[in-house]
Specification:
382 residues, alpha+beta, conserved putative lor/sdh protein from methanococcus maripaludis s2 fold, Elongation Factor Tu (Ef-tu), domain 3, OB fold (Dihydrolipoamide Acetyltransferase, E2P), 3 domains, six-stranded antiparallel barrel, four-stranded antiparallel beta sheet
């Protein structure tokens, strides 16, 4: 009985296990429900890729070769040419009583600038009157000595003494006249003041005496009352960094563009390269000699200078209409696959003759670009 009971229990357990297994696998599994969800791929749109209908309506041109030289661009200021700058000098010292010109005026050579009341004038005129009197007396004595010598009353030696005295008196008279002339005094019309006149024609660029303060100003014969400069030629003094000095040479041409007149381009020549560098900025002063027609450039104006070196370089050039100025950058359109056009960023250079534009980087010589970039852009925006 025990063995039969054991078999019965084993049979029950086996049936129960089969039932459990059948219950777990009773419903077939769905592979789709167990798989992860499919990924959704979104295509990123290229904003620089343009598709238009009938792309053949836009003419393509090839970028051509443009030979040029190395250039650097620096800033500078307009300065007077020192060789054309003259200080106003008067030997007489005294009190300034009147000023007839002011800074910025254009004066001609010989024009009256100021009056100086000077004791030097009275002293020099007194010496002149004494020299005139001495010369007159010496001449009378010489005439008397010659008369007496003709009659045998005196020897020839006394005539020679009188002759020497008369020559000395003449020399003293000439010296006193020259002193009056240097002081600016007319010996025939003496006055209590010295007339200080312009030694050359030009613009007054510096003035250290004024009409309001003239009555209390003592002019000690220095050269700083006025400074006159001929501004038909000026200097553009630029700061060139140390690492660019090797590209700058004497005699090289430079293009000057003034901040006040951005549309005007003037041409100058490098006339000096400073021998001493600024220890803080590490720059050297480079001087550009340039003509100043109609006094267009005024002292102190800011200028942008492009200095052309002697090293040959090759850049690409395209029609100016092929360059699109957008968002403070320069772009061109190049053909792409499937009748599309791609917008490419470039770095533009100077404007060239023939309505051409220099391209420093971005495209190569021979590469095709759309000749009218603005027309393509307008068509794409519609």
């Amino acid at each position: 009985m025990s063995s039969m009971s054991s078999r019965r229990h084993a049979t029950i357990l086996l049936c129960f296990g089969i039932y459990l297994l059948a219950g777990c696998n009773g419903k077939p599994s769905d592979p789709k429900s167990e798989a992860p969800p499919a990924a959704v791929v979104q295509t990123d749109t290229d904003v620089n890729l343009v598709h238009v209908d009938h792309p053949d309506q836009f003419t393509l041109v090839a970028a051509t070769n443009y030979a040029t030289t190395s250039t650097i661009q620096v800033t500078g200021t307009v300065n007077p040419d020192i060789s054309r700058t003259v200080p106003v000098i008067s030997i007489a010292s005294g009190r300034v009583v009147e000023v007839h010109a002011r800074i910025g005026d254009y004066v001609k050579k010989g024009q009256l600038l100021m009056d100086v009341q000077s004791t030097d004038v009275s002293g020099a005129f007194g010496q002149y009157l004494k020299a005139v009197s001495d010369e007159r007396l010496a001449k009378v004595q010489l005439d008397r000595a010659r008369l007496l010598n003709d009659k045998g009353a005196i020897p020839n030696s006394q005539v020679e003494v009188a002759q020497n005295a008369e020559e000395d008196a003449k020399a003293a008279l000439v010296a006193s006249e020259e002193q009056l002339r240097v002081l600016g005094v007319d010996k025939d019309h003496p006055a209590a003041t010295v007339k200080v006149r312009a030694p050359v024609s030009g613009y007054i660029i510096a003035q250290n005496v004024t009409t309001d303060g003239a009555a209390g100003v003592t002019y000690a014969g220095s050269s700083n009352a006025f400074t006159i400069a001929d501004l038909s030629h000026v200097w553009i003094v630029c700061d060139v960094y140390e690492n660019n000095l090797s590209t700058v040479h004497l005699g090289e041409k430079a293009e000057i563009r003034l901040t006040a007149y951005p549309d005007r381009v003037l041409t100058g020549v490098v006339s000096d390269i400073g021998a001493v560098l600024d220890p803080q900025l590490r720059t050297a002063k480079v001087r550009i000699q340039v003509e100043n027609p109609n006094t267009l450039m005024r002292v102190g104006m800011f200028a942008t200078v492009t200095i052309h070196g002697k090293t040959a370089q090759t850049h690409a050039q395209v029609p100016a209409t092929a360059v699109l100025h957008l968002h403070d950058r320069d772009w061109v359109y190049v053909p792409a696959d499937g009748g599309k056009f791609r917008r490419v960023s470039v770095r533009g250079g100077v404007t060239l003759p023939g309505n051409m534009q220099e391209i420093l980087s971005g495209i190569d010589v021979g590469q095709l670009v759309v000749s009218n970039a603005l027309a393509l852009q307008n068509t794409a925006d519609q």
